[in-house]
Amino acid sequence: MAPVDLELIRFAFANLKGMRFRSFLTILGIVIGIAAIVALISVGEGLNQSVSQQFQSLGTDTIFVLPGGGMMESMFAKLSDDDAGTIEEVRGVDFAAAIYTSGQQIEFRGERYSVTLLGVEPEKIDKLAMIGMANVAEGRKLTENDTSGVVIGSKFASRIIKTEIGLKQSIEIGGKKFRVVGILDEATNNFARMFNPAIVINSDELKKISETEVTPTRIIVNILSSEEMEEVKQRIENRLEEDHGKKDFQIMDLQQISAIAGDVVGIISLVLIGIAAISLLVGGIGIMNTMLMSVMQRTKEIGLMKAIGATTPKIIRIFVVEAGLIGLAGGIVGLILGVGTAALVSIAAEMANLPLTTVVTPQLIVGAVAFSMAVGMIAGVYPAMRAASVDPVEALRYE
To answer: CA angle, 115 as apex, 113 and 116 as ends, to 5°?
Structure first.
């Protein structure tokens, strides 16, 4: 059986070589579809792994308190200045750090820049450093007496002011001079990246220089035991709801955030893969059209093969194998382009300092090639049956 199969493949390959240009145009749809699917799946898998790693680096004993009960509500709801202190009184809580955020104009060496200020209570800096946030690499951390000191993020100079800025240099914020007392270590965790291009300031000072009311945008809570996560969350919820008189906040642990992130990535990937599948459908229709044209052009040849003893199943196999080879060629080229695109995405993410490494698994490679070949073979079934149904006598007369 094997020699016959090899003979069929050689015969089919020879036929395809005779119509190279048409074969090339036919596989374009398959190439685009497979390339898109491979790139999207590898990027999606990389995103899932990246999200998982980010959550693991923070541990399982960190939760976030955010304003509002959902995306739209969070735009209008507010946390209060007392919420962090209230949360710290809850049994099972280690600490609660309120993060204040404000967009401000600063002046440095005669130039003005728009920056993000992050207000933090100085005594909470050490606590945040313990969970991988706001580690001071140079200089010192803020203290309660720092009314004119700031700490800058590791990427503040390169991303915001595009020039070097070091310790003891002055920045004017809201008409007041502040001195750089520390520079943060670069944060690699997604939850801590907000510190990289920002200025960290004593939260009390941030309230004084802000023209509008500033309230916490989030409260980072560390609990004493991850085993009591649900119980502690419930206690915090009950206490805050009692203080606020309503539930205008949301409490999320890392598993919930991870699940939401995974769902979002999954939905986006599914939609994009669906779009790519349309290209595969178009490619399959293209293969079917090409094979039907081939049947018409090779009617006399088919009649001759039947006249010398070629059976109907063998005629069907010849055309199905040809269609499968077209799909295989498109799959291989699409796989190469997809892997290359995924690699470029990974390089771009690295240049942008984003923790994303695309993942191309052996299962994805085999699946993509096998799937493209299957699309080709399925698309070739109808033309193959048309070819097999040709009457040999009529076919030999065909001009």
So the answer is: 170
Query: What is the separation, in whole angstroms, between the first and last Cα of the chain?
Result: 35
pLDDT value of position 1:
36
Q: How much is the pTM?
A: 0.62
Which range, of 52-56, 169-173, 229-233, 268-272, averages the lowest pLDDT?
A: 52-56
Query: Cα-flanking dihedrals φ and ψ of residue 105, to 5°?
Result: -95, 130
Residues in CB range of 52: below 8 A, 6 or more apart:
258
Q: Which stretches of the chain are DSSP H helices?
A: 2-17, 20-58, 83-88, 125-130, 156, 203-209, 229-244, 254-297, 299-307, 312-351, 362-388, 392-397
The answer to whether residue 70 is domain-embedded is: no
Say yes or no: 174 and 288 in one domain. no
DSSP 185: P
Contact 23, 331 (CB under 8 A): no
Is residue 162 classed as helix, strand or coil in its secondary structure? coil
109 inside domain = yes
- Total structural domains in the chain? 2
Residue 2: what pLDDT?
Answer: 40
Model confidence over 235-248: pLDDT tens digits? 999 999 998 888 88
Question: How far is it, in rounded angstroms, from Cα 183 to Cα 166?
Answer: 8
